[in-house]
Write a structure and sequence with these properties.
- The protein is mainly β.
- The chain folds into three domains: about 120 residues, Tailspike Protein, Chain, CATH 2.170.14.10; about 325 residues, 3 Solenoid (Pectate Lyase C-like), CATH 2.160.20; about 30 residues, no CATH class.
- The protein is about 5% helix and about 45% strand.
- The chain has three helices and 44 strands.
- The strands form six sheets. It has a 24-stranded mixed beta sheet that branches. Strands 13, 16, 18, 20, 21, 24, 27, 30 and 33 form a nine-stranded mixed beta sheet that branches.
- Helix 3 links the parallel strand 42 and strand 43.
- The longest helix is centred in the first third of the chain and has 9 residues.
- The protein is elongated, with a radius of gyration of 29 Å.
C-alpha cells in the first residue's frame, strides 16, 4: 500500500538557510484542502493535527527534521510545506503520486518551476518514478531503468522491493544511494561480475545506506577500485551484502576503498570472502561477517602498496571458516576493539603468508568462541616468520566447544628480538563456567633497540666487508673510531 516519501528537506530550511523548527508538511487530496492520511513504517496514521497557530500537517522536530512518511499508492496528493507559523517555505506540488496510474504522477522528466516543491523533489531520484519506471517486483529486469537513474547523477532512492539486474550497475562518479532498509530494498544481481561498481572514478562523498546488495550466489557485491587515488571518503551505513562470491573488493586496481567509514554493514553468506581489505584508513563500526569462507582478507593492493591499516569497533564474526586472514606484507595498523568472534570453523585469525610484518596488530576486549572443529589454539597461530608489534589485551576465550582454545603463548614464537608481542589481562572460560587466567607475557624487554630491527655486529671493517653489509648491520668504523650503522 505505502511507499516512502523521498523528502529532501531534512532538516527543513528557510532563506537564508536558517532551520525551520517544528515545520509543518501537510498532505491533501489533490486539488482540495482535505487532509489525507499518511503513515509510519508500521502502517499507523501519522498525526497532521493543527498546532496552536492553526497550521496542519506532519510536524518536524525542533531541528526541522521530519520522520519517515509513507504514502498510500492509491492516492494522489497535494503536498504543502510551511513554517510552524504558516509561512510558505516552497510552493506546493499538486499533484504528487507514488503510483503510476491515474492523474499526473510526479516525474523526474518534468521541468518544475524554480523554488517549487516539485523542483526540490527533483533533486532526489526515486527509481520507480518516471522516466525511469523501475518495477522492483523481483521479476522485471530493472537494469536499464536503474542505470539511467544512476547516470542522472542525482541521489538515488529505492523504495521497498527487489530490483533484478542482469549486468553491472556502473557509477560514473560520486553517488548517493538509499533504500528503506536492509531486506526491504534489495538490488539483486542475477549475473557474474559486480552488482554495483565504482571503477576508475572519483568516489569522494558517495554513500550507500539502508539497502541490501544481493549477488544471487554468482556476483561480487560492490566493486571499488581505481588506477589512481580516487576511491576514498565513502560512507556505507546499514547495508547488507548477501549471497555474493566476494562482498566487496577492488580487483587488480592499484587503489581500492580507503579513508572511508562502514557502519552496521552486514556481509552474509559470501562464498569466498566477505570483505577484501586492501585500502588504508577504513573505519568499521558494528559490522558483521556471517557464514563466509573468509570474513575478511587483509590484502595488499595490486599496485604493490601495503595495507595501510584499519579499525574494527564492536564488530561480530559468526560461523566463518576463518574470520580474518592476512595476505599482506607488511600490514600496517590494525585494531580490533570490542569485537566478538563466534563459532569460527577453523581459526579466528589465519595466515596466507609464511612471513608477515605487522606494524601494529592490536586486539582489545575481544570475545573468542571457536567451534568444536577449530584447529591449533583456535584463535591465532603466528606464521613461521613474524615481525613487528602484536598485542592481545583484556580478551576472553570460550573453551567450551573447543577445549584447546586459548591465546598465543610465549612458547609459540622463537623470533626474539624481531617481535614485540604481549598478552595481558585475558581469561579462558571453560565448560561448566570455570574461569582460568591466561598467563600474561611480554617479550618487549628482550628486544634490541629499535624494536623492529635486528642488528648484526661486525668486529671491524674487513669483517663487515667480507660478510656484505646490509640494512641494520652494526660494525666498527675505523675511520671515525666508533660503531656505525648501515642504513
Amino acid at each position: 500500500m505505502a511507499s516512502l516519501f523521498p523528502f529532501v528537506f531534512n532538516p527543513t530550511l528557510v532563506n537564508p538557510g536558517a532551520i525551520a523548527p517544528n515545520a509543518k508538511m501537510a498532505f491533501y487530496l489533490t486539488g482540495t484542502s482535505t487532509l489525507t492520511p499518511v503513515y509510519d513504517a508500521a502502517g499507523n496514521p501519522i498525526s497532521q493535527a493543527a498546532n496552536g497557530a492553526g497550521v496542519s500537517g506532519v510536524t518536524a522536530d525542533s531541528f526541522g527534521r521530519f520522520p519517515n512518511i509513507y504514502l498510500d499508492d492509491a492516492v494522489t496528493y497535494r503536498v504543502a510545506l510551511r513554517t510552524a507559523q504558516g509561512a510558505t517555505i516552497t510552493p506546493d506540488i499538486d499533484p504528487y503520486k507514488t503510483a503510476s496510474a491515474g492523474n499526473l504522477p510526479f516525474s523526474h522528466s518534468t521541468n518544475y518551476g524554480s523554488g517549487t516543491f516539485g523542483a526540490a523533489l527533483n533533486q532526489y531520484v526515486s527509481v520507480k518514478d518516471a522516466p525511469y519506471n523501475a518495477k522492483g517486483d523481483g521479476t522485471t529486469n530493472d537494469t536499464a531503468a536503474i542505470q539511467a537513474a544512476l547516470d542522472s547523477g542525482k541521489p538515488l532512492y529505492f523504495p521497498s522491493g527487489t530490483y533484478v539486474t542482469t549486468a553491472t550497475l556502473n557509477c560514473s562518479g560520486p553517488r548517493k544511494i538509499v533504500g528503506d532498509g536492509q531486506g526491504m530494498s534489495v538490488i539483486q544481481g542475477q549475473h557474474t561480475g559486480s552488482v554495483l561498481s565504482w571503477s576508475n572514478v572519483w568516489t569522494n562523498g558517495s554513500s550507500i545506506r539502508d539497502i541490501s546488495i544481493d549477488g544471487h550466489s554468482t556476483a561480487v557485491g560492490i566493486f571499488v577500485g581505481s588506477d589512481t587515488e580516487t576511491t576514498a571518503h565513502m560512507l556505507w551505513e546499514n547495508v547488507q551484502i548477501i549471497n555474493c562470491t566476494t562482498g566487496t573488493w577492488g580487483g587488480t586496481k592499484a587503489f581500492t576503498l580507503f579513508d572511508s567509514v562502514l557502519i552496521k554493514v552486514d556481509f552474509y553468506n559470501c562464498s569466498i570472502i566477505g570483505e577484501v581489505l586492501s585500502g588504508s584508513g577504513n573505519r568499521h563500526e558494528g559490522c558483521t561477517y556471517r557464514l563466509c569462507h573468509y570474513g575478511i582478507e587483509v590484502d595488499q593492493q595490486a599496485g604493490g602498496y601495503s595495507i595501510g591499516g584499519g579499525s574494527f569497533i564492536g564488530g561480530t564474526w559468526v560461523g566463518n571458516t576463518f574470520d580474518v586472514v592476512f595476505n599482506a606484507n607488511p600490514c600496517r595498523q590494525l585494531l580490533f576493539d570490542g569485537c566478538w568472534f563466534e563459532q569460527t570453523v577453523t581459526s579466528v585469525f589465519g595466515n596466507l603468508l609464511t612471513s608477515i610484518y605487522h606494524h601494529t596488530f592490536t586486539v582489545k576486549g575481544a570475545l573468542f568462541q571457536p567451534a568444536a572443529t577449530a584447529t591449533g589454539n583456535g584463535v591465532w597461530t603466528p606464521p613461521a616468520t613474524l615481525l613487528g608489534s602484536v598485542e592481545f589485551d583484556s580478551c576472553v576465550v570460550f573453551a567450551d566447544a573447543y577445549t584447546s582454545a586459548t591465546l598465543p603463548v610465549a612458547a609459540t614464537t622463537s623470533l626474539l628480538p624481531q617481535l614485540s608481542m604481549r598478552v595481558t589481562n585475558s581469561r579462558r572460560l571453560l565448560s561448566g563456567g570455570t574461569v582460568e587466567e591466561i598467563p600474561s607475557w611480554d617479550n618487549t624487554s628482550l628486544m634490541s633497540f629499535p624494536k623492529i630491527m635486528q642488528f648484526r655486529l661486525y668486529a671491524n671493517d674487513a669483517a663487515a666487508g667480507a660478510a656484505g653489509l646490509t640494512f641494520g648491520d652494526l660494525y666498527y668504523n675505523s675511520t671515525v673510531n666508533a660503531l656505525s650503522l648501515k642504513n
